[in-house]
């Protein structure tokens, strides 16, 4: 399993890739494997402000459904529309084309609470 | 956690493993969708060695089975199998199972892994006829070879003409030079194929032979996750989801294996009463018409949001374009074509009651 160094991770298996005041959010390789084949994700609408650790959507897999939790307080500014036609990108490229939402980071100091790749990997025991 | 004779092979294949009914079982290998389609289109192999097997023998075997089984075991001939359930004495179901008749005084019962102990105790308690019982669950491995090409794969290992084994019939014989394997034209996928009951020491040999013989059909190992989506599309009940100790066979749509015209059996009076009075709820199929996937335990509501039922199984399965579910629904909403709503995350999602199987 792959856990890129440049990302920050949550205990709920989301990652965030910081890009200035913005961040891309997705689920980890571990999470997509646990869920199995993704059917579709569902998100709060663009413009919604979501606090850290609050639910910003859910992801439906063939066998199960899982909530999505926001890594840091932010405002949703973009949804990955590629997933409408190709939800399997979350499985095949979880850190790339399978990203879920782009947010404007409202409390950058919360990034310090997140795990780095090594800590995350340790937390899931792989 | 218990292992099957093939657990090490699954781990070596990098399968996603999880505990199921006390066994360390493969949930998926290459992915649910790929595995599911492989079975529908060609052939796949399931290790379902966790299933339980009991032998019931002797001159009183039939008497015992008739007493505990809802279906008419006396209708079986040698080499034939029958789907049935074991009702309890409170209107519910102890387990669903398959009964194989090897001869007039030699039967094999195949039960769900999670219920082995419960079933065994139940059968012993009701063995007033004193048939000879043996729990052989730990010495029998079970491989389900399923899909339209299954017959071609297995045929490579035996001189028995598999075309001569009709649906729900079996022959005990030699497969890849191993004797006493039950080759049964049964399965839980609705895609055809056979189930192989193998003395456990030979399970690895047969597994490897199947994989080799199936190469030309791109044979794949299939996990329990795809087993669930495959059976759901066909509307087959899963014990623990769609039927359990509290659900009645008549409500579950299992009236066809509940023979009220046979001699008395445990639970008969409940089934007869329900059939007479009419049922107040029924297990039906749902096709979801709006976006959302119904899952086990979700409420089913009327238009006003009043609870009228509960989902027992549900998924977006690989062969269908829309999500499906099985649910117990109150009268009169259980009628085909009724509009109902599944409560998914506080939203009411429109669904239609449809006839099963979902996939013909």
| Main sheet summary of chain A | 6 strands, antiparallel
Low-confidence stretches of chain B: none
Strands of chain B, total number: 19
The overall number of domains of chain A is: 1
Largest interface: A-B, 14 and 16 residues
The radius of gyration computed from the alpha-carbon positions of chain B, rounded to a whole number of angstroms, is: 21 Å
Output the structural class of chain B: alpha+beta
Which oligomeric state applies?
heterodimer
Q: What percent of residues of chain A adopt helix (DSSP H or I)?
A: 10-25%
Order of helices and strands of chain B: HEEHEEHEEEHEEHEEEHEHHEEEEEE
Shape of chain A: globular
| Integer average pLDDT of chain B | 97
CATH superfamily caption of chain A:
RNA polymerase II/Efflux pump adaptor protein, barrel-sandwich hybrid domain
Physical arrangement of strands within the biggest beta sheet of chain B:
10-11-12-9-3-13
How can the largest sheet of chain B be summarized? 6 strands, mixed
CATH class of the domain at 52-136 in chain B: Alpha Beta
Quick synopsis:
Chain A has 126 residues and is α+β, with helices and mostly antiparallel strands.
How is this fold's topology laid out?
The complex is a heterodimer of chains A (126) and B (360).
Chain A: E1 8-9, E2 14-19, E3 22-27, H1 29-35, E4 38-43, E5 49-50, E6 55-61, E7 65-69, E8 74-79, H2 82-85, H3 89-92, E9 101-105, H4 117-124
Antiparallel strand pairs in A: 1-2, 2-3, 3-9, 4-6, 5-8, 6-7, 8-9
Chain B: H1 7-12, E1 16-20, E2 23-28, H2 32-41, E3 44-47, E4 52-57, H3 61-68, E5 80-87, E6 93-103, E7 106-111, H4 116-125, E8 132-135, E9 140-146, H5 150-155, E10 170-175, E11 178-184, E12 193-199, H6 203-213, E13 220-222, H7 224-233, H8 268-277, E14 281-288, E15 299-301, E16 307-315, E17 324-330, E18 339-344, E19 347-354
Parallel strand pairs in B: 3-13
Antiparallel strand pairs in B: 1-2, 3-9, 4-7, 4-8, 5-6, 6-7, 9-12, 10-11, 11-12, 14-17, 14-19, 15-16, 15-18, 16-17, 18-19
Helix pairs in contact in B: 2-7
């Amino acid at each position: 399993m792959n856990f890129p160094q440049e990302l920050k991770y949550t205990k709920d298996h989301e990652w965030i890739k910081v890009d200035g005041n913005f961040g891309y959010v997705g689920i980890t390789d571990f999470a997509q494997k646990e869920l199995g084949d993704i059917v579709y994700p569902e998100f709060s609408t663009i413009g919604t402000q979501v606090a850290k650790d609050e639910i910003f959507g859910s992801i439906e897999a063939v066998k199960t459904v899982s909530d999505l939790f926001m890594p840091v307080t932010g405002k949703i500014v973009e949804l990955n529309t590629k997933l409408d036609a190709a939800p399997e990108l979350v499985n095949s490229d979880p850190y790339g084309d399978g990203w879920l939402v782009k947010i404007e980071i409202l409390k950058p100091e919360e990034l310090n609470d997140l795990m780095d790749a090594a800590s995350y990997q340790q937390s899931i025991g792989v | 956690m218990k292992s099957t004779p093939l657990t090490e092979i699954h781990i070596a294949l990098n399968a996603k493993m999880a505990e199921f009914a006390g066994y360390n079982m493969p949930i998926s290998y290459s992915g649910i969708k790929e595995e599911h389609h492989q079975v529908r289109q060609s052939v796949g192999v399931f290790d379902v060695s966790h299933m339980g097997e009991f032998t019931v023998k002797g001159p009183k075997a039939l008497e015992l089975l008739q007493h505990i089984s809802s279906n008419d075991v006396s209708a079986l001939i040698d080499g034939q199998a029958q789907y049935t359930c074991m009702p309890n004495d409170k209107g519910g179901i102890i387990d669903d199972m398959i009964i194989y008749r090897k001869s007039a005084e030699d039967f094999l019962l195949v039960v769900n892994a999670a219920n082995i102990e419960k079933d065994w105790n139940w059968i012993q308690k009701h063995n007033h006829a004193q048939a000879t019982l043996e729990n052989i669950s730990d010495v029998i491995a079970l491989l389900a070879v399923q899909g339209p090409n299954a017959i071609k794969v297995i045929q490579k290992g035996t001189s028995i003409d598999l075309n001569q084994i009709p649906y729900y019939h079996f022959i005990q014989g030699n497969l890849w030079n191993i004797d006493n394997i039950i080759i049964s034209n049964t399965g839980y996928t609705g895609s055809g194929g056979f189930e192989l009951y193998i003395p456990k020491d030979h399970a690895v040999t047969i597994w490897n032979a199947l994989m080799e013989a199936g190469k030309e059909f791109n044979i794949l190992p299939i996990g329990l996750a795809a087993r669930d989506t495959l059976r759901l599309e066909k509307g087959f009940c899963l014990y623990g989801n769609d039927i359990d100790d509290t659900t009645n066979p008549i409500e579950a749509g299992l009236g066809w294996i509940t023979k009220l015209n046979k001699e008395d059996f445990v639970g008969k009076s409940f089934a007869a009463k329900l059939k007479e009075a009419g049922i107040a709820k029924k297990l039906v199929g749902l096709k979801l018409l709006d976006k959302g996937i119904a899952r086990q335990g979700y409420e089913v509501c009327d238009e006003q949001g009043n609870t009228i039922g509960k989902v027992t199984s549900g998924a977006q399965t690989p062969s269908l374009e829309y999500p499906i579910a099985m649910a117990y629904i109150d009268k009169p909403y259980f009628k085909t074509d009724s509009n109902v709503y599944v409560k998914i995350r506080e939203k009411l999602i429109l669904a239609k009651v449809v006839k099963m199987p979902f996939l013909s």
